[in-house]
Write the C-alpha cells for this entry.
Amino acid sequence: MGTNTAARFDVVEYMDRMGRKARAVSSDIARLGPDVKNRALECIAQSIEKGADTILAENALDMSAARRNNLKSSLVDRLMLDESRIAATVQGCRQVAGLKDPVGEMTEPVRRPSGIEISKMRVPLGVVGIIYESRPNVTVDAAVLCFKSGNACILRGGSEAIHSNLALARCMKAGLEDAGLDPDCIQVVETTDRTAVDCLITMDEHVDIIVPRGGKGLIERISKHATVPVIKHLDGICHVYIDSEADVEKAIRVAYNAKARRYGICGAMETLLVADDIAPDVLPELCRQYRDKGIELRGCGRARQLVDGMAPATDEDWATEYLDAILSIRVVEGMNQAIEHIEAYGSGHTDSIITENPQRQREFASRVDSSSVMINASTQFADGFEYGLGAEIGISTDKLHVRGPVGLEGLTSQKYVVRGDGAIRP
Amino acid sequence: MGTNTAARFDVVEYMDRMGRKARAVSSDIARLGPDVKNRALECIAQSIEKGADTILAENALDMSAARRNNLKSSLVDRLMLDESRIAATVQGCRQVAGLKDPVGEMTEPVRRPSGIEISKMRVPLGVVGIIYESRPNVTVDAAVLCFKSGNACILRGGSEAIHSNLALARCMKAGLEDAGLDPDCIQVVETTDRTAVDCLITMDEHVDIIVPRGGKGLIERISKHATVPVIKHLDGICHVYIDSEADVEKAIRVAYNAKARRYGICGAMETLLVADDIAPDVLPELCRQYRDKGIELRGCGRARQLVDGMAPATDEDWATEYLDAILSIRVVEGMNQAIEHIEAYGSGHTDSIITENPQRQREFASRVDSSSVMINASTQFADGFEYGLGAEIGISTDKLHVRGPVGLEGLTSQKYVVRGDGAIRP
C-alpha cells in the first residue's frame, strides 16, 4: 500500500475494522473451556505442519528481498525459517496446549459478616496487540499464548517478514476453522504501512494491552505514543554484585555464566560489581576467563589496578546495555555502594548478589527494586521457561499489573464475584 | 500564588523538588517493618487528636471562604469538619494500623529442575500521587493507606479545603517526627495553582501511580492528561437483572436496596433489567416501593404497560449515571438480552443477577465483564470495607493491575526472588 492520504485513510478504516472484529470475538474466546482451546491448538499445530512447504516458499520470498535490500546478517538469520524452526514452532503450540489454563480460576470464597461471599475469578484481558520485528515464529508463539489465555489478538510483524507472517497466519486461521472456531480469534495485519502501528497502539476502545517485542528503538517508539497500556522492558542493564562474604568459586562460576553464556539476551550481565575485600581473590582469575572467551573489559581505577590492560570505564559504560562481548567492572566498598550503583544505573530488570551471608541476601533482595532479584544465581535465568511459566510473551520492568517474565497469567485479570442469598447492605 | 509565567516556573520547580524528595524517601519507607509503621500510625492518630482545635480553626477559615464564594451546600457539607469527623479520622488511622501489612510477603518458593528456587515478594509501588476534592479527611485516609503499604505519597486536595488540608498535614508530619521518621513520607502540595496537578500527573520519574478521588470531571481530566498510570473508575452505571427464575421476594428486596439505600455512591443501581416472564410479578410492587421513597421512574414501553404513569426512558437514560433518585427500567426477553444491554451501556463497575438457577448464575458471572459481578446481592456492597479489605483507596474499573475496590494490596507490586547456590544457566 502507498502512503498517500487516500491510502492512509484506508489503513485507519482497515485497522478499525480489525479492532472491532477482535473486540467482538473476544467475548466468545473468553468463554471457551480448556478442552476446546487445547483441541484448537492441536489443529493449529497440524495445520502448520501441513503447510510447512508453503511457509518455506513464502519465507524464501522474504529472504531474497532481505538479501536484495542488504539486511544485516543477524537480521537475515532471525528472518530465516527452516524445517527445524517450523518443527520448534509446532512443538511450541503443543507445549502451550499442555499449560494450565488460568481462565475461570476462582479464589477460595471468603464469607463476610454481612452474609455475602467474596471470591475472585481470573478472566482474559480481552484483546492483545503484539508488535514485533523480523522473527516470523513470534507470529505463532505470541498468537497461541494469547489464544490459550482467552484473548483475541492482533499481530503486527516487521515488513521484512510479511510473506512468512501471512503464511503462518493463514495456517493458524485454517487450524481455528478446523476446530470449528472463528478465524478472527487470531488476526495478522496484512499491510506494511506504518500507520497500522499508530492505529493499533491508540485503539483504546478495541485493544486492552500492547506487547512490543524487539529492539529498544521499537519499544521506545511504541511506549511514547501508545495510549493503550504497554507491557514492556526497555533495558536490561543487569548487575552481579560479588559480596565480601561470597564463596569465591561460586562467584567466579556465576559471574562468568551471567556474562559469557549469551551476550544478546536481556538477562545478560552488563556490569560486574565486586566488594573491595574480595576483589583480589576474584578478579584476576575471572578476568582471565572472560578474556579467554574474547570479552572486552572496562574497569574503574581500582579494577584496573588489580587486572592489567583493562580500559577505563566511563559513566556512559555504567549506563549501557552492551548486548555484546563487553563488560564493565567496578570495585565497590560493600553492599550499600553496590545497591546505590544499581539504583543509579540499573534498569530494574535483573540483579544478583553472590554472598553466603543470609542477612545480606535478605537485605539485597528487599532493597533492590528490580523485577527479578537473584541470590547466588546467574542473571541469565531471567526467563519465563526457567521460572516455570511454560512460555513467555515478554518481560516487564514496570511495576504495575505484571513484573518480570510474563506468561499466561500476565495476560489475564481478576474480577470479584460476590454471592448472596438476597443480601442487602444495611 | 499567581499564574504569571514566573510563578508557574516556581510551581514546576516546587513540584519537582517534592517529587525528588518523595522518590528519595520511598526506599526508606519500603524497608520499614510493620511494627515501626504501626507505631507511627498511632503517633499520627495522637497528633491529630492533640491538634483538633487548630484543625477546626483552620477548617473554619475554609468554611467561611466557601460561604463567601457561594459554594453548593453539598460541597460545603463535605468540606465541614467537626469533632466527630476528626474522631472518625483518628479511628481510621488506628484501623489501618490494625490491617495486615502486605509488604515483604513471600509466596511459597517453587524449586525448578535447574536447581533455582523461585518465589515472589510483595513490595510497595514507590510514590503515590493522590488528587482529590473538597473532603479534607481524604488527606488522612489516603496518606495512612499509602504509608502502611510502604509508599511515599504526595497529596493534592481541592483549593477550597487548603487550610484544613495543611493543618491535617502538619499534624501527620508531627506524628511521623514523633515516631522518629522522615516527615517527607507524607507530603501535601501547599499551592492551589493548577499547574501543580499538571506536574504531578506527568512526573513519571518520581511518581509511580496516581489515584484521583472525586467527581467524573476531575477523573476524566486527569486520565486524559496523565502520563503516570492512573487507578480509577469514571462511571458506576450499575445494573440489577431480575431473571425469570428469580425468587420474587429476594428480587424486590435486593433491587430496592440497590437503588434506594443511597443514591450518591458509585455502587448504586442506575438501571433495572427485568425478564419479561417475571416482570408482572415484580414490577408493580417494586415500583410502588420506589415511588413511596420518592424515586422517579423511567421505563421502556413494556415497563410502562405494567406500571402506570412511568415516563419513557431514552437511550440517554440507559447511558446515564444519575447518582440521584431516578431509576431507568427495561423489560428484557431474558439473560442474553440483559447481558447485551450491560455490554452496551454498562461501565464495567458492578452488575448483579437475581436468579435461583445455578447455571445462569455461573454464566452471568463469567460473561459479564465488570469489576464486580454479584449473584443475589445488592450492588451497594461494592466497597472495600464490605469486601474485607479493611479500607479502600478507590475502585478500579480498569482491568490492568487492580480491579474493583482497591486496598493496601493494590498499592503494592510483586517482584521475583530467585535463589540458587551458585546456579548457572546451561
Summary: Chain A touches chain B through 66 residues (CB under 8 Å). The radius of gyration of chain A is 24 Å. Residues 5-30 of chain A form the longest helix (26 residues).
